[in-house]
Every structure is written in structure tokens, then in C-alpha cells.
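Usage

Read records sequentially. Each one opens with the input sequence:
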Amino acid sequence: MTCRQWTPGLIGAAVLMLITSLPQILLCYERGRQWNGAYACLDRDEFAYSAYVNALINQRPRLNDPYTGEDGGAFETLFSIQSLPAYAIAMPARLFGISASTAFIILLPTITIASSLLLFLLFFELTQNEIFSAIGAFCVLCFGWVAASLPWVFFSPHVAFPFLKRYVPAFPFPFFLAMTLFTWWALVRKSVFWSFLSGLCFVVLIYSYFFLWTAAPRGLRC
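and closes with the structure output:
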């Protein structure tokens, strides 16, 4: 792809990043000096996820319960099994000395840009039209939730960008898109390299979010 062909995809990603960052911008504006580094919550599950990431940043064991605060549980939990995204966020946060809240703030635009560009690439591979690809990526990420919702949900409060719920499915979502793109390249280019990368993305999904890794093979079969 040329620089000119990349331009619509980059513009679409930038616009989408601005849209998804509006809740955080509004929070910082309204709170002013009392902002205190808080992140704009998109889903109530994010409180438990950020607590688990914060525990890993503080070097507590993987088997900790964010609801009870206890360490070393006897059984695996959804947090401990799907721990790859949590460690992927906690380790850089610990390295750079930032909090779980700050990491969640950084994660949102990062995932938005990565998801938008991967979808843009996938559509471009299928259509060879950069304008259509940019519009398609934007529409899928903005309105994809419509396909999974009941009609009366449209007129009630809901999460407009469910793929951005941190840290799952936000963190593994680009890997889901990348696996689809790599699989396509592996088929059309008959390349072992892209097959390997596709399989690697699938492994990441297995230890990240069960809804995505179970949907991945079913989607590819279709």
C-alpha cells in the first residue's frame, strides 16, 4: 500500500480515537484539578478488572480475588485463567511506574487505533478500495453492536463501543482481527509464516477471553 492509500485509514482511526476518547476528555474537563487520574468507566466490570491489574502491579499472586482481596485461592477464577491481558498491562505499568487507572486510560486509544487499522487492512485486502475500507472499518466499530442487540435496546442506555471494555475484550480484540487478517494472507499467499502468526494470535485469545477464542474458529469456518 502507498502512503496515499493509507491516508483514509489513518484519518478514520484518528476520528474514531477522538470519539472514543470523549468520555475521558469530558471527565478531565468536569473534574478539573480534582480529576486525580481517574479513568472514564465504560462498563461496571472494569472496576474488578482494574483491581486485578492493580494487584498484579503490586506483585500479588495470579490467584488473587479482586472482590474479596484474598490471595492464593484454591481454585482458578475467570481472572486467573484469562490472565494474559492483565499481565500484558500490569508488567509495562510496573516497569514505567504508572497506575492501573493510567494504564486503562492509555489502553483505550491504543486499542481503538489498532482495531481500526486492522479492519482497514482486512477490508482493503478484500476490496482494494481504500475509501470503502476506511468507511467499512469505521462503521463496523461504531455500529457492530447493532447486529448483536435486540431492537428495544437501541432506545435504552447501553455501551456504544462494547469492544472497548477494559481489559477484556479490549486487549484481545485486535488479536482477533489480526488472526482473521493473517489467516486470509496465509490462504491467498500460501504462506507458512502467516499461518504461524494466525495460530499465535489464536493462542493469545485462548488465554485472554473465552468469548473471542470460541468465536474465532466458528467465524473462520463460515
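Summary fields computed downstream for this record:
- The chain has a mean pLDDT of 88.
- The CA atoms of residues 183 and 198 lie 6 Å apart.
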